[in-house]
Amino acid sequence: MIAEEKLSLKKKEKDKVKQQSNMAEQQVQISLQRKIDTEQRLIETQIQYQKVGQEKQSTISRTIELEQKIIRLEEKKKKYAEKLNQSQIPCSVLMKIIKYLKTPLTEDIEENKEVMEYQEIGAKLLKRMFLGEDGLESLNQAIIYGVVEGFLFAFEKRELNSITQPITDTFKHLTSSTNEIKQLLVSKEPFIGLTRLLEHSNASVIDDAINSIYSLVTEVGITSSETSPHPNFSEIQICGGIDKILNLFQRNISKIQKDLSAVCLGFLFRERDFTDQQLLFDIQSHLKLQKDDLMMNCEKGLLNLELLMDYY
Q1: In sequence order, what are the residues at sequence separation of 6 or more whose Cβ sits closer than 8 angstroms to the Cβ of residue 222?
Q2: Where is this region: Disordered (predicted)?
Q3: Cα of 133 vs its chain's centroid, Å
Q4: Cα–Cα distance for residue pair 218/224, rounded to 1 Å
Q5: Which of 100, 106, 147, 255 could cross-link 118 (Cys pair, CB 3.0–4.6 Å)?
Q6: CA distance 217 to 227
C-alpha cells in the first residue's frame, strides 16, 4: 500500500514537472514570437523610412531635373529671341525649326508646351526672315530645306486647336510670294491641311487659311486654261475641302472670309455643274454686290472677278 502511494506521488510529481516544463516552453515560444513580431515591425518601419527617403530623394531629383529643363528652355528661347533681330537664319537653326514643326505632340504636357513654344518662335523667326532685305532668297533657302513640308505636317497631323496663329500667319506669307513659289507650293498638295484649318476655333487662323487657299487656287485658276476645270478641284474635293469652303461662305462669320471663299468657289467650279442653284445664286450675287470691295481684297483685282462672272 505504501509502495503504491509512493508510485502515485512520483507520478503526480512527474506530471507536475512535465506540465511546468510545457508551460515554460509555451512561455518561451510566446516570448520568441513576440520578439519575432517586434523585429518584424522594426523591419517594416525601416522599410517605410527607406521608402519615404527614396520618394523624397526621387522628388528632389525630379524637381532638380525640371528646374534644369526650365533653365535650358529659357536659354534656348533667349537664343531664338536674339535670332529674331536678324534677317538671315543659319542652316542649323532652320533645320531645328523644321524639326520642331514636324514633331508630333505626346501625352507629356510639359514637352508639348516646349514644342509649341519652339514652333511659334520658329514661325516668327521665319516671317522676319521672309520680310527682310533678302526675303526671296531666304524663302527659297527655307523651301529647299523642307519648311513647307514642316508646316503642312503640322496642319495635317496636329490637334486642330493646338495650331496657333503665328504659324498660319507665316505660311500665309509663303503663299503671297512669287508665282513660281505659289506653283511650287501647289505641287506639295497643301489643300488637305489648309482646308482642315477652316474648322479651327480661332477666327484669325481661319482668315490665314482662306487667304492661303485663295492665293493658291487663284494662281492655278488664272494660269490654267479658262475653258477647262480647275486642276485642283478633285484634290480639294477628296479631302472634303470643297464642302468646308462652301460652309465657310454660308457661315458668314466675317466679310474677308465670305469674300475670299466666294472667289475660291468661283474658280473651283469653273466648267463644272453646280447642283445647288440657290447656293450658286448666292455666291454669284455676293461677287457682283461686293465687286468694289473684292477688287481691294483680291490681289488679282478686276480681272479675276470678270473671269468669274463669265464662268457662272
Answers
A1: 300, 303, 304, 307
A2: 1-22
A3: 32
A4: 10
A5: 100
A6: 16
